[in-house]
């Protein structure tokens, strides 16, 4: 009997151990649910980066036209985020073309973290000549390529090719241009080994031809839809300032809010963008909330940029971080990311240590609260932080728990 009892006990112990193992396995494999501030669930696409609320979710976009990153710099950026973009001119002077620079950097990041999502950059409006695809869009070469010259806007008054500081302007109303552009961008994604593409400029220079506003908007939408088809569903299409752009919005997977001047930083615009971030999330799209402190006070920042740019703007970014981090947190939804610094270059913030961005955050406990109807004070609770911000006086307080 004693021997039988011991056998039964052993079976029970093994049974309990197996049960615990199965529970643990089930918890590990259970899909994480991310709730939008209205209580609905965010459904991410398989192509998206992994997301969590452990710390402030960051996105990083950078470029240095003269060189590749050092291994230390790759590690510094990879420690902050698993969602990056290689900017338009990166390493083109060192390796010949920007798409090669992007390819080398993406390979370096993937070697460190295979799960990182890295985007390639292309512009829908300006013919930046940093890639092999665009190298002939220069004043010295364009006349030798009449087929490319047709893709450039012409100034109706002077008859000359339209440009901004010698960078030519694309004509989105030209169907041949749109076909070339889609094919070119898709090839750039392949050549760089990227997980998708960041597309800059969604306007199509509509202000140069207001009488054709609807045609320009439809052409932009068509071009973006065709690009999405060309790169495929497993690649990310991120559009800069694309939220609320009716014809473009259906094509994109993510939208950036680029705050490039004081108007974009106004209390009215921030409130509108929080609404857009909610709309993006409900549509299953990601948001990038990009702050460049150089735009905070334009006259002052221009002086800083022309003077001791690095030290002064780095100091300003440290001083103003709490306010802008709070502005992001008030409107943040699942798969909303924060990008911070004072420009687009490697030396304008991506390598700076902002310890507050790595503090434990935790998931939001609900939507933001507007303290007074039609007022400009807002609060929001996270698992490990209480956020208060007043966008009228541009002050904030984040209380870490």
Oligomer: single chain
N-to-C SSE series?
Answer: HEEEHEHHEHEEHEHEEHEHHEEEEE
Radius of gyration: 24 Å
The neighbouring-strand order within the major sheet is 3-4-5-8-9-10-11-12
How many strands in all? 16
Uncertain residue segments: 1-30, 299-308
Bin the strand percentage.
15-25%
Largest sheet: 8 strands, parallel
Tally of helical runs? 10
Overall shape: globular
Q: Averaged pLDDT, please?
A: 91
Instruction: Measure the end-to-end span.
Output: 58 Å
Helical percent range? 25-40%
Class from helix and strand fractions: alpha/beta
What layout of secondary structure does this protein have?
Elements: H1 2-29, E1 34-35, E2 41-42, E3 60-62, H2 71-78, E4 83-86, H3 92-95, H4 98-112, E5 117-123, H5 146-149, E6 163-164, E7 167-168, H6 175-192, E8 196-200, H7 213-231, E9 236-240, E10 254-259, H8 267-282, E11 286-292, H9 298-306, H10 309-331, E12 336-341, E13 369-370, E14 377-382, E15 385-390, E16 395-400
Parallel strand pairs: 3-4, 4-5, 5-8, 8-9, 9-10, 10-11, 11-12
Antiparallel strand pairs: 1-2, 6-7, 13-14, 14-15, 15-16
């Amino acid at each position: 009997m004693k021997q039988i009892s011991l056998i039964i006990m052993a079976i029970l112990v093994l049974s309990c151990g197996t049960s615990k193992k199965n529970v643990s396995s089930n918890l590990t494999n259970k899909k994480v649910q991310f709730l939008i501030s209205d209580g609905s669930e965010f459904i991410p696409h398989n192509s998206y980066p992994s997301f969590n609320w452990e710390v402030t979710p960051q996105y990083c976009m950078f470029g240095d036209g003269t060189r590749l990153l050092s291994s230390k710099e790759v590690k510094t950026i990879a420690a902050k985020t698993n969602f990056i973009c290689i900017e338009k001119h990166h390493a083109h002077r060192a390796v010949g073309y920007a798409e090669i620079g992007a390819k080398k950097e993406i390979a370096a990041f993937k070697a460190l973290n295979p799960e990182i999502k890295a985007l390639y950059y292309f512009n829908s409006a300006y013919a930046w000549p940093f890639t092999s695809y665009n190298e002939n869009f220069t004043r010295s070469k364009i006349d030798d390529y009449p087929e490319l010259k047709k893709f450039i806007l012409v100034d109706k008054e002077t008859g000359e090719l339209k440009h901004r500081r010698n960078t030519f302007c694309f004509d989105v109303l030209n169907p041949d241009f749109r076909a070339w552009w889609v094919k070119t961008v898709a090839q750039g994604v392949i050549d760089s080994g990227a997980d998708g593409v960041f597309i800059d400029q969604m306007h199509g220079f509509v202000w140069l031809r207001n009488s054709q506003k609807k045609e320009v908007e439809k052409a932009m939408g068509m071009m973006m839809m065709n690009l999405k088809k060309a790169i495929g569903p497993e690649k990310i299409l991120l559009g800069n300032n694309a939220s609320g752009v009716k014809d473009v919005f259906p094509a994109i997977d993510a939208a950036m809010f680029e705050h490039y001047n004081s108007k974009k930083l106004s209390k009215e615009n921030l409130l509108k963008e929080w609404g857009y971030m909610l709309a993006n999330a409900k549509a299953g799209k990601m948001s990038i909330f990009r702050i460049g402190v150089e735009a905070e006070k334009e006259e002052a920042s221009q002086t800083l940029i022309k003077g001791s740019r690095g030290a002064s703007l780095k100091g300003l970014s440290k001083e103003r971080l709490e306010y802008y981090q709070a502005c992001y947190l008030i409107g943040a939804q699942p798969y909303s990311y924060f990008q911070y610094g004072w420009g687009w270059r490697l030396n304008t913030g991506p390598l700076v240590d902002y310890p507050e961005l790595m503090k434990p955050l935790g998931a939001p406990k609900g939507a933001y609260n507007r303290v007074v109807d039609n007022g400009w004070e807002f609060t929001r609770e996270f698992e490990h932080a209480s956020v208060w911000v007043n966008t009228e006086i541009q002050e904030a307080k984040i209380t870490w728990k």
